[in-house]
Amino acid sequence: MNRTSYIAFASILVGCAVLGLKMLAFWLTGSVALYSDALESVVNVATAIATAAAVRYSALPPDSNHPYGHHKAEYFAAVLIGVLIILAAASILHEAYYAFHSPRQIEAPAQGLVVNGIAGVINLIWAQILIRYGRKHRSPSMAADGRHLMTDVLSSAGVIIGIALAIATGWQQLDAVLAALVALNILWSGWQVMRESVAGLMDVAVPPELLDQIRGIIAAEANGAIEAHDVRTRIAGSATFVDFHLVVPGDMTVTCAHDICDRVEQALKREVPGSTISIHVEPENKAKHAGIVVV
């Protein structure tokens, strides 16, 4: 099991611990806002399980049925995360509606808020770990899980402040209003996660700055060739696919052209980890004079 898988499975343990603390806070207080916070942690545990499974599956090497690898499995997990978030928000809105019309007395608020605060701190630390690791290793499902945890941290902070205000002002309906706001925040988070996942499933290109870097590497390393054109890229999880046409002199031997391709491919793989390169070699009469001019 690699480090990514260890972190993904650790998320399950962290999610269960936070869920236990938030359920305790809800049990102590009876607050529907704390119930909404606890329900979001149920989603966290479910999404942590989905992320762990996706990370493990996406790490499998290419096979005869999946010659380009299993990287997109992480995007399906991210879509599942978005769906679960939306279902949790709907459940919270349902409870908030009835709690607004039939306000509940908040019991033992101090103890409940302290317990919920501890859970929020744990989530904050773990969310930062997931986001940084997901960005560094280009794991969309792990980064999505981390961003969702950050929304949980923000909503938990808002719930704690709101419940304190409800107790201070005596306006019990504020508890239900807070729960509804938490649900809307969760819905926004779910939309963001699903939008990014759909972009990955649609073979989105690399960011412009990375494309410029790729084009610069080709221009610097393909000396002996004439130009490169029709550079295309796509991202699939932690993998980057790059293909382009390389124009060489018509009298160049296959061996020399192959050496240039090897040099460019090695440079790209060195600077763009996890990249797969496909190069189509063409004679000089195929030059478009509109691509990358080789240095």
Automatic annotation (TrEMBL):
It is found in: Cell membrane. Keywords: Cell membrane, Membrane, Transmembrane, Transmembrane helix, Transport. One of its GO terms (molecular function) is zinc efflux antiporter activity. Coiled coil: none annotated. GO terms for biological process: intracellular zinc ion homeostasis. The chain crosses the membrane at residues 7-28, 75-93, 113-133, 153-171, 177-194. One of its GO terms (cellular component) is plasma membrane. InterPro entries: Cation_efflux, Cation_efflux_CTD, Cation_efflux_CTD_sf, Cation_efflux_TM, Cation_efflux_TMD_sf, CDF_Transporter. Residues 9-202 form the Cation efflux protein transmembrane domain. It holds the Pfam family ZT_dimer. It is a multi-pass membrane protein. Residues 207-284 form the Cation efflux protein cytoplasmic domain. The keyword Transmembrane applies. PANTHER family: MITOCHONDRIAL METAL TRANSPORTER 1-RELATED. Belongs to the cation diffusion facilitator (CDF) transporter (TC 2.A.4) family. This is Protein p34. It comes from Agaricicola taiwanensis.
